[in-house]
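#random but structural
TW: two for the price of one
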Amino acid sequence: MGAEAHSDGASEPQRSSRRFPQLTRDTARPEGGGRAASGGYPAPARQWPLLTVMGGVAVGLLLVALDVFRIGAMVIGLSMLAGAVLRWALPSVGMLAVRSRFTDMALYGLLGFVIVILSLMVQPKPWLHIPFLDDIVHFTVRSEP
């Protein structure tokens, strides 16, 4: 009902409706998933937004491994926030685009924000203290000053 043969006898069916087919054969590239640089550049240059975010996360993980946990976690969170900004600002970000632009921005931004806030609240001597969390979490370990 939905497919008719081409008039030139080609074996590829022509869709007569705008509905998506029941069986898909390929996946669509996410919005903004094109190359960040033209095809004449080498592969790393075409994927610079992803490499920027991954490089920041790698530096943060290295800092965590070197026992600078708070700063390392903040670098990881700030890298995720940078990914959200890149996804918003650039028309094509290569492999940094995984889902729709809105979903990528929301997830990168939310994850980055939560990681930064948690890194500011890490014990001992947190840089950020949120009083109502003491009431929500009953089983916290407190060190006496």
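TW: number two ↓
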Amino acid sequence: MNITHAQFVTLPVTDQDRARTFYTDALGFDVVADRQMGPVRWLAVAPKGAQTHFVLAAAEQGFTPGSVRGTALVSADLDGDCAALRAAGAKVEGPDDQPWGRQATLEDPDGNRFLLSPEG
């Protein structure tokens, strides 16, 4: 096999502009694409330097906002990032120690939930 990485993960959102603001301002992601493709707006964001993008897809495209669960994001400073996210108004639970390691949970404005895990 020659698969090298995932290109994108679709995140269903109710308002693409609101989602863009959350992912760029609260999470510090970069906008890697924002263009109209016929009736569809292709809006993708990603952590700096990441190969995998998050496509912020509107409900009109057939997706259910808030339905994403279990995607893990890795942090070089879990406690610091959780504090910064809370200060930015994001919903964060933890970080807590689990039998498999330390982690937190982050929820975007539409209810999509992510695990936040430390590097290593």
